[in-house]
Amino acid sequence: MKKILVCLIAIVVVMNLSAQVEGTIQWRPEIDFTYQVNGEYVEISSETGYVDEPGMPQIPYCVKTFLIPVNTQPAIQIKYVNRKLQKKDILLYPVQPPIPIGESILSWVEPNSDIYNSSNPFPGKYAEIVSDRMDFGYHLVTVRFYPIEYIPKQRELYTCDIAYSLTFSMAKKLASTSIIEKQSEYLSQLDEDYIRSIIDNKEMLSEITPNIKASFRKGRLGAMVSAAEKNANSDVDNYLPEYLIITNETLKEKFRILADWKTKKGIPAIIETVEEISTTYTGSDIQEKIRNYLVDVKRNYGSMFVLLGGDTNVIPARVKKSRDSDNKDWVAVDFYYTCVDNGNWNKNGNNIYYEADKIDFEDSKDWGVSFKLGRAPVETLEEAEIFVNKVIHYEKADLNIDYSYINNSVAADAFISKNENTGYLSNEKRSEIASFYSETNLNRWLIYDHYNCKSNIATCSNKHSVYEDQSGKGEELNKVHFVSALQNGGNSGLNHFHLVYHMDHSSPEGMGTSSKDKNESISNWDVDNLNNGYYYQIVMSGGCSPADITKDCIAEHFINNPQGGAVAFIGNADTGWANEHVHLGQFLSELYKTSANATNRYDLSILHQKALENIKYKNFKLANCALHLLGDPEMQVWSDVPKTMNVTLMPASLTTGENMIMVNINGLPQNETARICIQKKDELYIVDQLANGSHTINVSVQTLGVVNITVTAHNFRPVERDVQVSQNGSESTIAVEDLIYNDKGTGVSIGNGDGQLDAGETIELTVKLRNTGNSALNGVTASLISTSDDIEIVNANATFGNIAGNTAVRSVTPFVFKINKDSGEHLRNNSSGINLNLQISVNGETKIQPLKIDNIYAPKIEIGNQKITWTSNGNTTVEAGETVKMNIDLMNVGQAEATGLKAVLISNNLQVSCSSTPIVYPSIAFSETKTNTIAFQFQTSSSYAGILSFTLQVSNEYGRTWNFPVNPLSRPSVIKTSTLDFQPYASSINVYWTPVKEVAGYNIYRSDNGENGIYRRLNRFPLKAAYYLDDSLAERTLYYYKVAAISTNGNESEWSAAYRTWTSYPVVSPFPKRLATGVYSSVSCPNIADVDNDGKQEIFWIYEDRYDTHTSYIMGFRPSGEELYDIDGNVTTVSGFVKTPTMLTGQVAFGDLSRNGEQNIVASTWEDDKKYQEKRAVYCYSPFDRDGDHKPDLLWEKRIPYSMFQSPVIANLDGSADGTMEVIVKSHQTSDIFILDHDGNEVRRLNPNVHVTNGKDHNRSALTVADLDGDGQMEIIASYDSLGIYIWRQDGTPFTTNPFWGAGIPRLASAPVVCDLNEDGKKEILFSQRQMAESKVFAISLDGDKTVAGWDGSQTIPYTVNAVGSTLDHTLSVGDINNDGHLEVVILGHETVKAWTHTGKLIFSKSIKGLFPQENYASNMNTPILADVDGDAVPDIVFCCNNYIYALHNDGSDIIGFPIISDEKFLDTPCVADIDNDGKSELIAGNEHELYVWKTDGVPTAIEWGVKRGNPQNTNEYFPTVCQPTLINSNEVWDGKSPCGNVVLQSGRLLIPAGKTMVLNKTFSVIVRSGAVLEVDGGSILNARLVVQKGGTVIVKNNGLIKLRAGSDFDMEKGAILDFSFGAIDIP
């Protein structure tokens, strides 16, 4: 960019209030841009940004930022354009979407045909204003110029010399929030330095001032100086804070240590708590309240450093939708707190922030920067202490380490994209990242994918572009190398690393380390185990979401690691883009000052800000607000090894009175200065900048003690000296020790006695003086002098008499001052704070002691609701010729109590007359609303025409007045409850409604005791946004709300009708989980099983792409939310357990098919399209990866010629002694039922063999498998519509005769349920009908007339009919839902839920709106789950309905906390189980795109029907207990109980002693894994099957016995150990 801006001229015409900036843009080939051939296209390469709309010609542009005066309106004009033809017959490359660091190569976007076939010049403009904003009080305008023009149809490319004029004129009113009252000179210097670095008309910086009323230096605080000196130093006592910490009361004292350090080194710091902000500021939630507080902070103090002292549970984050449209997550955006100059980021008031430009904000205006902000993501006192200690030690460089590490940096870069078909790797920035280091003094170490991998190496040949690092200072990127580098420098030979850069796929829980190529990453656990000690790092990552503070993100783990980790982390809270490696270059350029546009600053916030300022934008905007700073924004970053500063401070001690401190500094680099801060608590504070040489500083000290002197300079360790103050014998030393205020109304004081200073009060001030010397002071007197128009001194003089040495006394009589009744607020340490001067006379000397008085508050009255309460005729309607009474609410929004209030109502209408008698109001405290004690009264004349217009004149006891317009007839319309909605959380409810136009705000009221209970207003101030977050609520509780709109005249609408809400169950973090790739969605339901033998149950769920690729993903999650496998090697994404080449649906089935202790996962194809019929199959997966490809092993795949809508069933059909299991699947396209053995081989097919042509021999209902006759072998049960119910034995023969029952009954399409319903010791079968207006529920026995007592066909439920593609399988469930020892039957129907007793008696019929709708393709297949969720140990009824999950008690009544609400529909059945073994059940459900897990209070033993098909094998038989394996992980002794499932020895030793017996059932096994020992020492194992894996040991001694069951195996792998020389193994 050598010649972008040839001419830049600024002409300012102040007299005309207009001005202009003129210049010319000229680009030249090979200097400002180059050409690159890319296939048939030509790409134009430039260091600037490009047109970013996909499909458009990729034209570069240049960006210029100009400084213009505040309060002006800019316009860009093109004076002339000189076009030069550069190339003909050139087809420009079309813009492609940015590549998220979390995606594979995106689909190619073809050139936009309309544009490429047009003869119109592109982009069709030469310049545009893209930003008009306020940064730190400066008015900046950013202009985008287009010096290249393309004629697409003719394929001609031109360069354009653009002569422009940026004009500006006084045209707009400045928002009050833009005005900064006062700001410290230091902050002003920092801001000016920054602005100079980013603007292109730098010469105008000296002529244009920011929007700051006054800029002040810090001086001495509380110093006693002469009157002459006081007049000469008008800045004395202006202690304007520069650093703000917002935290909560719990963490406050830990952050106080950091604030004290900042103040000590010359950066005055203050702390504010969330609790105080919450009670003082307006807002619909705490985020808005904090932002409103920051608006005040900006106005009072300017562009402070702001540290958000806490994670999102302390300082909640505002969230927005991701900048990547494919990412559906809500992401944090702390820029909500950084940019407070304009707007509220919710312009349309719909409770969704940052939606889009012109909707919620103006991209060109609202991104003005107000603060230098960072966040400390800490939650506990321990984490806060770690953070504070790291920052202080980093800045002091006072630890016993080798600080040469400061000059070391490591950069890890991976291939972002991988072509799944060819394996080609792309999208890396190895060369660019290496070049960023070229102008720094850093020792770099490059950890790259395929580091220096040459083209002649097989792993690299044609696999990616070739890059060679000639320095050889690097290595291959993988997890081990990256962790080693973080730990101690690894293989680099360098002493740890200071700056760490990372670019690879990431997620909140991990950062890739060659994720695409090697499928490796580091996790939170790896970071927690870093032990790099005091070698604190600054980490920057360009990956996706490593700094997503809404989750337990890896950035927090770096920050909070007590054994090392990082002192700061700069990373994305949102999706990262692959081209944002430039962040590193901008960071390094600013830190090492390699650019002409660098500042002179080294604070972390400037490095973060410069990293953000992508050359494409040159300002904040929605597109680049992902990169967040987790760290101290003011922390000074080392750019070289810390040196010891050569500073001499004299004298070694000070005395009370006047002193001179001599400072001599040597060795600072040329043109650099050091900062000196001299502090003695609150008595003395001096800050100055000193260059090399000798300096003298005058210091006046009043009291004994210690003066702290701190000298800091960049790349030098701070110099800290504590100087003792001793008594000066000849100097009278006296200091103000305390100020005592009296506003109680005693003496001559006049006030309300609340202890605070309020406008209008008369205050008695007693001053306590201390003689800090040893000699007595006699005849001490003082006079009080006001320095403010708001303070009137009533009694200026007081005597103190004689004060003995080192003694304090109070004034004999108090001073008296009166506060102006019209005074505004004056806050200490604020630009509005008031100082009084105390002139003290002692021993013939007069000295002035400034007094910083307490906060002064003022009442501020606003008018509220005006309501007619009575009329002469009693109808409360104002009519002609009657007397009317009215109440008028007043609200106090000032922090002083409003007392002695009176009001007079004045009519502005001749047709209405009022009494002039004042009406009294009670006192109104801050934020309270009160109404008049006696009604206002007025009379209407006979000619009254329906118009009311009054003025209410209000005064307080001090004579302050307010005037308000009054019209009780003008009020907003009632807000309809149909416009209200809510989102429940565990302890909060977000109520929101459709915004109402032209209203001033809203009030919201809540009842805690029912719809007709007492409602109280929740908001202290009118809400500006149309929502309210009501927090700190009781869990699972009903609440009712009413909302009212407020007009601009204060009137409130009638309250809305009561709106019912409830708090819900908490979502288990990090759920919900969503597949991040493609257009996959889910119509499936979750199933659960412990597949990895860890004692906890994993969740499996299916996604399918039914419209494009016709592929599916089986998702597999641990209870913690961790994926079982990361099959795409991308820690950013949720990638699934396996990807199948065909579509699946329903749910997987689990079973230990080979009886080797391994739960297999089986799924079947749902693929009706004949194009994909060759892919139809059943898949069986192991949960383990034994072939090392980082994916679960596919054990077998069996091709099936038909599509299978329903899920497979797993059972040991033949009851084989070895326990091996079969897989049974049913097609909906044929009547065939397929039986496969444990290896996937087809055993047989079953078929009704009725040969009908009307399709009645197949349907979409599921199979049931159960042992109906108790012979140890299973039967297969299927329903075939009007053909009836068919039952086969496992060998294919009919159970009795087929059809078994129901021939001729229409639409018997239901998954049969098997249970002993009538308690006769035999099993019954239950089923229902599909697609019927009234669906019957049948219960049949297995013998006789097949009737079950009480089940006479009268059990019906409304269902769906005449809807295409719906009611595919009408399912029911059974269980003991009332703990009476009998089974109940529950089924869902059309807007109805019903339950019957085991004898067929109706228990309840419950109406549920929207349940099983009469809609095409609604499927209507949800099965009710019967499980306790509310903690009463009684099973509840849980089911999905559209966007809701309902839960009912066993009488049909609602369970509070339900329904749970989702923003998408739940299309199939949830499940309930205690998946994490914590004694409380989880509720698991998937909507169309996300899998949720909620923590309930449910008792796990009260689960009767927990998953869709009753059990993980999908058999649809009622089992009151689902067997889980017994896991042995340590040394244990068997207790003699019979296990329900497999006994798996994973580690340790299981001892079966004499007298103890383990009896297995006929299908389960004892499995001994490698390293585990089974010792049968005198005890016995009966009915056994034994599997001993390699490295496992079995010992049988002391007459111990293992007796195998008939037909079972004793499987010993090679390398297993068996010792039974003193025992027996009985093999039948």
Keywords:
single chain, 1628 residues, mainly beta, seven-stranded mixed beta sheet, 15 helices, 8% helix, globular, disordered N terminus
The proportion of residues forming helix, as a percent range, comes to under 10%
Estimate the strand proportion. Answer: 35-45%
User: Structural class, from helix and strand content?
Assistant: mainly beta
User: What is the gyration radius calculated from CA atoms?
Assistant: 39 Å
Number of DSSP strands?
A: 112
User: What is the number of helices?
Assistant: 15
Shape: globular
Low confidence ranges: 1-17, 217-238, 615-620
Major beta sheet summary: 7 strands, mixed
Major beta sheet, strand line-up: 23-22-19-24-28-29-30
What is the first-to-last residue Cα distance? 88 Å
Average pLDDT reading: 89
Would you give an account of this structure?
The radius of gyration is 39 Å and the shape is globular. The strands form 29 sheets. A seven-stranded mixed β-sheet has the order 23-22-19-24-28-29-30, sandwiched between helices. Strands 31, 33, 35, 36, 38 and 39 form a six-stranded mixed β-sheet that branches. The protein is about 10% helix and about 35% strand. Helix 4 (about 250-265) packs parallel to helix 8, helix 9 (about 430-435) runs parallel beside helix 14 and helix 14 (about 580-590) packs antiparallel against helix 15. It contains 15 helices and 112 strands. It is mainly β and about 1650 residues long.
